[in-house]
Amino acid sequence: MPKIKTPKHAPDNDMTPFVDVAFLILSFFMLATKFKPEEPVEVKTPNSVSSAAVPEKDAFMVSIDKGGRVFVSMDNPEFKQVLIDNLNKTRNLGLTPAEMKSFVNSPSVGVPFNQLKSLLGMDPEQLKKVNQPGIPVSDSLGGELNFWVRDALVAYQGRKLNLLIKADNSTKYPAFKSVLTAFKKNDQNKFLLVTS
User: What share of the chain is helix, strand, coil (3-state, %, to 5)?
Assistant: First the structure.
C-alpha cells in the first residue's frame, strides 16, 4: 500500500515581531546614548600601554593644547554650580544667575577671570565660535588655574575628586609644569594622565 504524501510547503514566517524589536532596541540606544560634549580645542593625546579607564564621574579635567593653552571642565552640573558660586564670591566676578547657568551648561572654559563674564554672556552658538585664549598658569603659583583647582576641591568637599590632565602629545614641558604647580599649590599630588 502506498503512503500518502503530505504536500510540502515553505514555513510561513511573520517578520513583524522582529522588526518591532529591532526598532525598540534602536530607539532605546538613541535615547540612552550620552553624547560626547564638544571641546573648544582638539587635543591629540599620547599613546599608552595602560588599559585603565578614565573615571567618568567626579572628574575635574585640565586640558592643555599644543600651544600651551589651558582649559578646565567638570562633569557634574551640581558641583559646577558650587564651583562657579565660589569663584564668583572669592574672585569678585560679578556674574549674574544667567551667566552662571551658562557656565554650568558649557562643556569647558579657557579664559582669564577678567574675560569670563563677557564669555558667559554670549549665546551658545556664539560661544562655540569664540577662540578662547586659555587660563593663565604662567606664574610661580600656578596662575589663575590655582583658584580653579582650589574651588573645585571645595565643591567636592567630602567626596573624592578625580583630577585629570589631558595634554596634547606636542605640548611643551613648561605648560605642563605650570599645571602641576597649580595642583601642588593645592596639596594635590595624585592625578591621572589621559592617554590614547
Answer: 40, 10, 50
